[in-house]
Amino acid sequence: MSPDTAPYQFKQGDTAPPLIIGLEYADGTQVLAASLATAESIMLYMQDVDTDAVVSGSMVHVTSDADYPEDNAVRYDWTAGDTDTAGLYTAEIVVVFADSKEMSFPNDGRFLIEIHPRVA
User: Fold this and answer.
1) 103 and 97 in contact (C-beta within 8 Å)?
2) Which of 44, 78, 81, 109 is deepest in the core (most CB within 10 A)?
């Protein structure tokens, strides 16, 4: 995951598919699966670039997924209300590791999530 990648795309009001992202350090090294599996918490924070409104929620470590086969993946399952407001969001994932140390991903900025308006 790099802050200069294209935005993750979703449709207003949708709660599927989940957001699945592989976590990497700024140098491109993958976060170890063992570190994610024993993390105290993994949280998604996304902020609307126009209104500064924040959506947040818990993520889970994905050990095996057809859409993301790497061991460094985390998943956010959208809940009702998360994608109700169309727009562009900046986002980051905060992991609190088993030793209580906290780290944000990406380490060198934020990534983008775009929620497109529904037609009807």
Assistant:
1) yes
2) 44
Total domains present in the chain: 1
Q: Are 44 and 91 in contact (CB under 8 A)?
A: yes
pLDDT in tens, 77-112: 999 999 999 999 999 999 999 999 999 999 989 999
Let me know if residue 1 belongs to a domain. no
| pLDDT one-digit tens code per residue, 20-55 | 999 999 899 999 999 999 999 999 999 999 999 999
Q: Please say whether the beta carbons of 67 and 54 come within 8 A.
A: no
Report, in angstroms and rounded to the nearest whole number, the Rg of the chain calculated over CA atoms.
Answer: 14
Which one-letter amino acid corresponds to residue 86? A
Which domain covers residue 73, as residue numbers? 8-116
Residue 118 C-alpha from the chain's centroid:
22
